[in-house]
Design a protein that fits this description.
318 residues, alpha/beta, Rossmann fold, 8-stranded mixed beta sheet, disordered N terminus, disordered C terminus
């Protein structure tokens, strides 16, 4: 599938929109959100089915302490991607390689200031994938909000992961892709599942960021078949089985494993942290997998608290 729409920005009030080229010709919007001159940089990556602009209010809060950048991953927001089999265009390694290129483009704009990374779900998993086999990353500090690293056969929460991920694969295919307005989309989501727990400003930002105009209506920026395929592609346990090769220190943030109706990723986070080299794990009480949308202020504070860990920018990957 190829996106042929005119350029669309999910984060419309960004200072600058930079087009970053991927290895296969995909074009990924990198947004300069602003922040103090000379401050440490922060690159933010979003979850599957969302977009950079979904996090708009949170990103602007973070500009108090960071020079903030965010991006639309391939298949999302204002990205453009080449035609080809989904297992090639949207493989987990494509997202990892894209992250390396986006980090390099961000580093080039920081003048040597340290670069932090905050990845949520899909883009958090891309960071872990990029770090496999001892690969070094250009981040001074990397904070991952629940990367969906799928457990292998025999793992304690394998059955839970299989059941819930299959629901995501099937459910995303049934998404309504056409809407009259962002307001109609918001009214619908307010009554649905985890969206009922979203901070209102974050929910509205998400609705605006993930719909693009198409004639007299709006379409989901992330087509349901692509969102579904990405969920399906993260049912492979290869990353989990190679966690021991990672030599990057990650700061992991988890929702509350004792909360009712928890996500399988929340249940797996303790094991993921144990498998990752020198990683820390912080649990947010009463939060779920969408914690940034449920507790945006606390999640922003977590990143601010790690400013003291900044070091000079590491060499960016090509």
């Amino acid at each position: 599938m190829t996106s042929t729409s005119a350029p669309f920005s999910s984060l419309r009030d960004a200072v600058e929109r930079i087009a970053v080229s991927a290895a296969d010709g995909a074009l990924l919007p990198l947004y300069d959100v602003g922040g103090p001159a000379g401050a440490p940089g922060l690159l933010v990556g979003h979850a599957n089915g969302l977009a950079a602009g979904s996090y708009g209010p949170w990103l602007r809060e973070l500009t108090r302490w960071f020079r903030v950048f965010a991006f639309d991953a391939r298949g999302h927001g204002g990205s453009l991607w080449p035609a080809g089999p989904l297992d090639q265009v949207f493989s987990v390694d494509r997202f990892a390689d894209d992250l390396a290129r986006l980090a390099a483009a961000t580093c080039a704009r920081l003048g040597g200031a340290p670069l932090h990374f905050a990845g949520h779900s899909l883009c958090a998993a891309a960071a872990v994938r990029l770090a496999l086999d001892g690969a070094s990353l250009p981040f001074a500090v990397a904070t991952l909000f629940e990367p969906p690293i799928f457990p292998p056969e025999g793992a304690a929460n394998r059955a839970e992961a299989v059941e819930q991920q299959e629901k995501l694969v099937r459910g995303s295919l049934r998404r309504q892709r056409r809407w009259k307005s962002a307001s109609e989309f918001e009214a619908f989501l307010k009554t649905r599942g985890v969206f009922r727990s979203f901070d209102p400003a974050m929910l509205w930002a998400h609705c605006q960021a993930t719909l693009k105009p198409e004639g007299d209506h709006y379409l989901l920026c992330c087509p349901p078949e692509i969102e579904s395929f990405i969920f399906a592609s993260h049912r492979d346990a290869d990353t989990w089985n190679r966690l021991g090769t990672v030599r990057t220190e990650f700061h992991l943030v988890s929702g509350d494993p004792s909360a009712p109706n928890r996500d399988w990723v929340t249940g797996a986070m303790a094991s993921i942290a144990q498998g990752l080299y020198a990683s820390t794990l912080e649990i947010l009480p009463r939060a779920g997998h969408m914690m940034i949308f449920q507790q945006p202020q606390r999640c922003a504070e977590l990143l601010r608290e790690r400013l003291d860990g900044s070091v000079p920018c590491k060499k960016c990957m090509p």
